[in-house]
Amino acid sequence: MKKFIKYISVVFIAGGLFTSCETTELDNRVSPNDLAADQADPNLLLNSIQLAYMTNQQVLSDRAAELTRIDYFFGRNYFNQLPGNTLNGVWSRTYSSGGNGAGDPVSIGILTNLQGLESIDAETDVDFSFHIGVAKTLYAHSLFQLADFIGNAAFSEAGNPVEFPAPNLDSAQDVYAAAFVLLNQAESLLAAEPATQGAQDLFYAGDTDAWIKVINTIRLRSYLNTGNIAAFNSIIAGGDFISESADDFQITYGTSELQPDNRHPDYAADYTPSGANIYQSNWLMETMLNNNDPRIRYYFFRQVGETPGADADPNEEELACSLVVPPQHYLDGGFTYCSVPNGYWGRSHGNDEGTPPDSFRRAAVGVYPAGGKFDADLFRNGAVELTSLGPDEMEGTADDVHEFVLDGDDDGTGLGLGAGGAGIEPIFLSSYVDFWRADVAISSGDMAGAAALLRSGLEKSIEKVQSFVDPQFNSGALLDGTTFVTATGEITTPEFASSLVPTADDNTAYIDEIVQEFEDGDMDDKLNVYAEQYFITLFGGATEAYNFYRRVGFPTTLLPNWELNPGPFPRTFLLPQNEVINNPNLTQRTDLNTQVFWDTNPASPTFPIAN
């Protein structure tokens, strides 16, 4: 989803981390350039850890979403589009770095700052158990993710440059084992409910009970990957995991445009004076459109009501592929090569065309999760046919007005429109956990239990998504406050817009249909229904989709790459090139075929089927 990574507001003070100290006497410094560990501010160290972790979640979620068609992937060849520098920043933010590129304020990674916290805690009388417990939780999750994306990671020789200036990498199995130990240590620290000592907890405001739920939820996702069903079920039986929306683990954004820009990165990219900059996934939009998914108007904001090549004439200038005959592998599978109708203007997997003048045409991110606009059929440079309500039912309009022409200030995407970027980056939501539980039920042969959990996951997802818009379009936090203007003046109560918000009956009908389809299908059908709904639910926080797809291979309904032979599907990424260059013990891989230890499926290209 995000091609433009920005950073959230609450850690903007972390930028001063390395010029701040507890004393004004420079003679107490170890060197003119570096603070001794016992002179750093523990609260700023924790802020920096949280910032680094949050940025990594954005990056990993984006890469996972692109590969699993939740977001659009640019490129006909996987290897060429995923070079060695793809995870440079993730690696350095996890460990330590002298800088991660322009605009990245994090110059010390999670591990180094965790070690600093432990040193301060050991040398002072103040108890910094809260800081260390949170830091170890985030570091453990980061290690799991590095093992999942790269196939191994540094642990046993990491963070000790004197003894190991060129650390060797540990196997993914060993990294998993080490990360589980870190979670145990974090839980022991947080279970004592230590004082926050003024720390700024950017997730749960110091609620240690909530952090223990996060720890157990990280265990759940890791046990699911490794097939440790007994351990998974033991945590479920204990009940101390993310199970309600109030527990959700997410990054929360604001609406400030400057100093700092704390808006959702996707909003900042799409809601600009020059139009939208992100392409949405044709597979995701078409799947939701065909199923009449009640979340679609929240996920995507359409700027136009028709798409060239689908329900409008082909347009070579704005959508070149609308004039192209699809290749045979698209024709054989009946896949949408270019155009999804009704203005769901995006791109299919692997499309590597240049950027045409379509920034005022392509579908933009919506109110969920990016804090944009709810899609109320308000299209640029045109009119909206109102079919659900007659003119005499619309307050503030002339009786003979049947079409609404939009004022330029309220038209399409633009700075400050919708919820102003006050969205979220999901990491672990309660709906995700219900889908994990359904996954376990399917593998255990409990189809009735899987159907019930599929229903529960959809109910939680739809409820959370729809909470981002007030059904009556009243003002309030995290709501789309769009105003509507016609040729006869402003509509003060836009009932026609609120009529497009799905009702409880709409939601129930959708969920009933999906669950019935799951129950009626054979095993492949069940897995496709489940996987499609899981991927749709993961929109905005799709890291676990990459793990699921490699582990299970569904859904098989995903769009193939534009290229018939795009190379093997990436089972892992290349090693971070910066580390390879600076570490003589490492040699860069020559392909993306390395499989994580829990990925026991056939080698690519025969798996996954939809590659």
- Tell me the fraction of residues in β-strands, as a range: under 5%
Within the largest sheet, what's the order of strands? 1-2
Unreliable stretches covering 5 or more consecutive residues: 1-33, 98-106, 382-410, 473-479, 481-496
Query: Which secondary-structure class do the elements indicate?
Result: mainly alpha
What global shape is seen?
globular
Could you describe the largest sheet, including whether it forms a barrel? Answer: 2 strands, antiparallel
Overall residue-averaged pLDDT value: 86
Structure description:
There is one protein chain. The chain is mainly alpha-helical and 611 residues long. Helices cover 38% and strands 5% of the residues. A hairpin with a 2-residue loop joins strand 9 and strand 10 (489-491). Helix 16 (504-520) packs antiparallel against helix 17 (523-537). The longest helix is centred in the first third of the chain and has 26 residues, at 42-67. The two termini are 20 Å apart.
Explain briefly what this protein structure is.
The protein has helices at 42-67, 78-81, 88-94, 110-123, 129-150, 172-191, 208-226, 229-238, 265-270, 282-290, 296-299, 328-333, 430-443, 447-466, 495-498, 504-520, 523-537, 543-552, 577-582, and strands at residues 152-153, 170-171, 249-252, 300-301, 364-365, 383-385, 403-405, 424-428, 484-486, 489-491. With 611 residues, the chain is mainly α.
